[in-house]
Amino acid sequence: MDLDPVILARMQFAFTIVFHIVFPAFTIGLSAWIATLIGLTLWTKNPHYENLAAFWTKIFAVSFAMGVVSGIVLTYQFGTNWSVFSRMVGNVIGPLIGYEVLTAFFLEASFLGILLFGRGRVPPGLHFFAAVLVAVGTAISAFWILSANSWMQAPAGFEMRDGVAYPTDWLAIIFNPTFPLRLAHMLIAAYVTTGFVVLAIGARYWLQGKHVREAETMVKMALGILVVLTPLQILVGDFHGLKALEYQPAKVAGLEGHWDGAEPAPLVLFALPDASAEANRFELAIPHLGSLILTHDWNGLYDGLKSFAPEDRPPVLPIFLSFRIMVGIGFLMAGIALWGVLAWARGRLFETGWFMSFLTYVWPLGFLAVIAGWVTTEMGRQPWVVTGLLRTEDAISPVTASEMLTSLILFVLVYAVVFASGLYFINRLLLKGPMRPIREHGLANRPITGASETGRIAIASGE
Amino acid sequence: MGMEFWLPAIWAAVIGVAVSLYVILDGFDLGIGILFPFTKDESERDQMMNSVAPFWDGNETWLILGGGGLFVAFPAAYAVIMPALYLPVLLMLLALVFRGVAFEFRWIAKPDHRFWDAAFAGGSALAAFSQGLILGGLLDGITVTDGRFSGGPLDWLSPFSILCGCAMVAGYALLGATWLNMRVAGHLEAKARGWAKGLLVAVLVFMVAVSLWTPLLYERIAERWFTLPNLFYLAPVPILTLLCALMVWTGLEKDQPASPFVGTVGMFLLGFAGLAISNFPYLVPPSLTVWDTAGAPESQVFMLIGVVALLPLILAYTAFMYWTFRGRVRAGEGYH
């Protein structure tokens, strides 16, 4: 069997980036939450904020380590697997990544040390400042990487000379047309993802009757931010879709399952698009609603997939489905947040019942939506790696299929071990829950505190 | 000479600085991992890991700056080197994944942390060895046609690159041992001095081997070093290297804290300078120079502004970090 290096390289990229994105999506939000908690500790002197900060910092440390190591892999993959891409657009994409390293990576990595190990070594104000810098660093990192990705979706501010892209206007490159909304969409997604994890863990502890004060704080703070961010995300997502229609009409046609641009588009709730028949099977659709959403006109027209040559169309079935998964989860999350806040307002949130039990299961929602969203946007860009400039199949390195296969297998094996262990360890920390910190000692997973913590557990279990 | 000359030259210097800083900074924390098997004592291993725990992440970021800088300033070199050294780069990345997560996992896994001890030690050693393979493979030369890599997947594999791999493992271990001598207290400090002495001998042997091998293999390198008047100008490099080695040895003999580490850093910098002298102006020996592979001047300038503005800041807060976590780490004590 002849293996296609392009397919293998794409599988490798998809595999490594799906694993990676889970961690930034979580740590961007988590670092902001930790900084908030440390700030509240300083402000209110309330020890349960401090417990929560110490507890979530441990979880952050593990998640961040996994994010760092899986991210380094991606930086180098541009060169190892996609060298034609690197050579052709390196002049434009390179500095964006370079600025990410200079403005974000060093900041995060350095102040992380102070956040994790610095309590007791630096004044409390500086410890808080370090936590804020880590949170800001993660968001700056998102800024640059989303700028680079958006440039690939809708390139701007450059000219082509001898098959190589040269920058002409850096502001146009950085703030390319789809970037601002995409950045907002991703940052909100990250905060929402973390919010649902905190919500679920809080609900879990509350139902178990463990760390009840901390649990109530977690549930309330999470619901408070989610009820604002989840509807906002739907709004931002909608604007983002309109931008995509302007710059990537084939993508939007694909994710709407819209084939014939001569007809007003229905809103397809469900179907199985069939690329060979150029039609949807098992379609369930609301007439005209698609046109109304995307053109704000009942009879509005926009290009369907048939308006594009078959070789210029994205793979319609996967993006059609992933888009629906993302949107569906988005509405579900908004519903949960709203329901929770209404229950809170009526004083009925902290009751044992189906809703609190249901909340213990909501932690994966944000992750699933983030992954589905990235699948939508990345596969939706196909067949291009840089829209209109470079096709994915032409971007690949001159390496053999067997090298690609070897590396893919190694990545799968190593990631399986490392990330399965990581999730197992995070779960172990979650089972333990927030401990009352003993003032002199910082993180409980450092040697000396390990001993005193064992003592605490012994005391706690004797209670 | 205009921008077309100076920009790539400045960028070569920037990347040189980033790579040197990477080698020294991540070198000592990779060295700690390589030295893990030298002791079976759990509390000593805790002490070793704690001596680098606040720093490793920042240290490793210089590797991203080195790789990222190459991508920005010399995209054509990046696009040749990465596919050519595909497998060693892959090995290095996977090894870094294992040893990086071990910093966190090992503590949570306790008391069942043996696997993560092995991951930390094995990952560190393999990362160092692959970096040596990358260096050796690059020095050995890369087959290029029309500015693209056109060799085979195992071109980098040679007795010379394996020698470089072993040299890198020994060198990082020496950095790690002299770091421990400076930064831990108790039994481990004396033990580390013992390790450092043996490793110093090994490193000197490797340095001599590489210094003799490269001019014998490559005429251009022999010509650079052994013709007049270059011989006189360049003679300080080996002489200073020997003086640094002497500084390491006497520092270890006299139980001095800092001089062995400083001497080792000096040896690394001089070794790096030697390699640069041998190969300049080639970025992809033996065919592509710094100027052949330079990216667009617009991109190099844009990025250089960031480097000039931000690198001093980064160095300042990195120094602040090291100052915050100064002092020796004792047995049974972490950073609290």
TrEMBL record, chain A:
It comes from the Bacteria. The chain crosses the membrane at residues 12-43, 55-76, 96-118, 125-146, 183-207, 219-236, 319-342, 354-375, 404-426. Belongs to the cytochrome ubiquinol oxidase subunit 1 family. This is Cytochrome bd-I ubiquinol oxidase subunit 1. InterPro entries: Cyt-d_ubiquinol_oxidase_su_1. It is found in: Cell inner membrane; Cell membrane. GO terms for molecular function: electron transfer activity; heme binding; metal ion binding; oxidoreductase activity, acting on diphenols and related substances as donors, oxygen as acceptor. Keywords: Cell membrane, Electron transport, Heme, Iron, Membrane, Metal-binding, Oxidoreductase, Transmembrane, Transmembrane helix, Transport. One of its GO terms (biological process) is aerobic electron transport chain. The keyword Ribosomal protein does not apply. GO terms for cellular component: cytochrome complex; plasma membrane. Its EC number is 1.10.3.10. It is a multi-pass membrane protein. The gene is cydA. Pfam families: Cyt_bd_oxida_I.
UniProtKB/TrEMBL annotation, chain B:
It is found in: Cell membrane. It is a multi-pass membrane protein. One of its GO terms (molecular function) is oxidoreductase activity, acting on diphenols and related substances as donors, oxygen as acceptor. It holds the Pfam family Cyt_bd_oxida_II. Keywords: Cell membrane, Membrane, Oxidoreductase, Transmembrane, Transmembrane helix. GO terms for cellular component: cytochrome complex; plasma membrane. One of its GO terms (biological process) is aerobic electron transport chain. Its main location: membrane. Its EC number is 1.10.3.10. Belongs to the cytochrome ubiquinol oxidase subunit 2 family. This is Cytochrome bd-I ubiquinol oxidase subunit 2. The lineage of its organism: Bacteria, Pseudomonadati, Pseudomonadota, Alphaproteobacteria, Hyphomicrobiales.
